[in-house]
């Protein structure tokens, strides 16, 4: 690639000729590499990180997988640069990139890999379902489990956020929503399945240090995905919805979709809202599900009033937009009644107040910025302690600064 000016940006007539040959034959190259996928070692992630290989051959195969993955990705980029379009889904280039990514433990290549696959899939959106069907069929029997595990682990990576997270979701969600992949979640550890991992990713996007339009767009996309697959993952939604703040995701998506006049997302959000509310009676009656009810109450009370105010404050343009806003606002009020949440009452009237401040090593690891979504549930990412009092904890400097202005400066060090 360097020889033909790919890296330097300068190329000669012979370089362009070489580039044309490569891009013209990209399908043959992709097919040849796809037939060699069995050479990618299916070794444990720990063994690769520690570079402990049982044989010289195993090490060589690992090095081959890394080199071939890089080569195929560079060739795909060259194709885009030369022809101004992504490689075809039929070229087997996306097949090999996705397969190699599944067995690559490093996360450094994930953003660029997902970005390339997203461009390919968006340019040929009509053919994506057929591509996924054929791709899963061509892989070996245990691949669905491996793919599900890789995707869920990547969703839980708190270093991937913003546009990179949205790109990852747009590529991975259609894959993991394939019934064959979705059913393989049973082999994943408790709390590491599709819904827990997806909600953990949403939580990162709603973090007080990151909240912006990208976070809203991300939640809107995830709400549509979860709604579409709700019948297959209903048990996980009931089990983890309250614990991992599904209502916060729904609230963010609802406000964002009303602002964007996106009726499909509003409908998806309202379906999930009804779905979560339907679980409340059974959790109230069953002592074994008491914690699920408490989690739903806590997370709902945390966002209900602010969301209602946000919905009421949206300026509408036209009758259809007003009707959409009113439908969403009425549904949100009804959800509040399920937990006896009413206008005029503060959130502190509805839920138990935070216990008295104690040393951070004894405290629940949550962000102390009340406006942050990570204050209502334990975040998946690391939190930092305030060096002034060693009691309050925050997601990062941005949350800490906001809470300092909000009033922590009055009590810090006391």
From TrEMBL:
SUPFAM superfamilies from the UniProt entry: HIT/MYND zinc finger-like
Q: Which GO terms describe its molecular function?
A: zinc ion binding
Query: Which segments constitute the MYND-type domain?
Result: 369-412
Which controlled-vocabulary keywords does the entry list?
A: Metal-binding, Zinc, Zinc-finger
Note whether Zinc-finger occurs among the keywords.
Answer: yes
Entry-linked InterPro entries: Znf_MYND (IPR002893)
* Protein name per UniProt: MYND-type domain-containing protein
| Species this chain originates from | Cristinia sonorae
């Amino acid at each position: 690639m360097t020889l033909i000016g790919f890296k330097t940006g300068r190329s000669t007539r012979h370089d362009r000729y070489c580039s044309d040959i490569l891009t013209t034959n990209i399908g043959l190259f992709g097919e040849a590499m796809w037939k060699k996928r069995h050479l990618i070692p299916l070794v444990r992630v720990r063994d690769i990180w520690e570079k402990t290989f049982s044989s010289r051959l195993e090490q060589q195969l690992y090095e081959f997988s890394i080199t071939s993955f890089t080569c195929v990705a560079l060739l795909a980029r060259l194709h885009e640069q030369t022809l101004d379009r992504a490689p075809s889904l039929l070229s087997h280039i996306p097949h090999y990139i996705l397969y190699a990514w599944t067995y690559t433990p490093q996360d450094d290549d994930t953003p660029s890999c997902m970005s390339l696959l997203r461009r390919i899939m968006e340019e040929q959106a009509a053919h994506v379902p057929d591509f996924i069907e054929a791709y899963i069929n061509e892989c070996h029997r245990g691949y669905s489990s491996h793919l599900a595990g890789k995707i869920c682990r990547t969703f839980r990576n708190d270093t991937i956020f913003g546009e990179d997270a949205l790109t990852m979701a747009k590529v991975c969600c259609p894959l993991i929503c394939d019934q064959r992949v979705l059913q393989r979640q049973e082999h994943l550890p408790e709390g590491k399945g599709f819904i827990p991992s997806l909600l953990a990713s949403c939580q990162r996007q709603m973090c007080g240090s990151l909240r912006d339009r990208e976070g809203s767009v991300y939640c809107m996309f995830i709400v549509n995905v979860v709604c579409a697959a709700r019948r297959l993952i209903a048990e996980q939604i009931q089990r983890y919805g309250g614990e991992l703040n599904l209502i916060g995701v729904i609230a963010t998506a609802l406000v964002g979709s009303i602002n964007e006049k996106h009726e499909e997302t509003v409908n998806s959000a309202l379906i999930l809202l009804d779905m979560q509310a339907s679980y409340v009676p059974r959790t109230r009656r069953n002592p074994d599900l008491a914690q699920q009810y408490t989690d739903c109450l806590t997370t709902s009370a945390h966002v209900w009033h602010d969301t209602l105010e946000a919905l009421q404050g949206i300026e509408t343009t036209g009758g259809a937009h007003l009707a959409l806003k009113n439908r969403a606002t009425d549904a949100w009020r009804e959800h509040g009644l399920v937990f006896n949440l009413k206008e005029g009452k503060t959130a502190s009237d509805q839920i138990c107040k935070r216990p008295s401040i104690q040393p951070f090593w004894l405290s629940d690891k949550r962000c102390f910025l009340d406006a942050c979504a990570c204050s209502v549930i334990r975040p998946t990412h690391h939190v930092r302690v305030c060096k002034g009092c060693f009691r309050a904890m925050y997601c990062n400097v941005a949350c800490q600064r906001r809470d300092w202005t909000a009033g922590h400066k009055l009590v810090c060090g006391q």
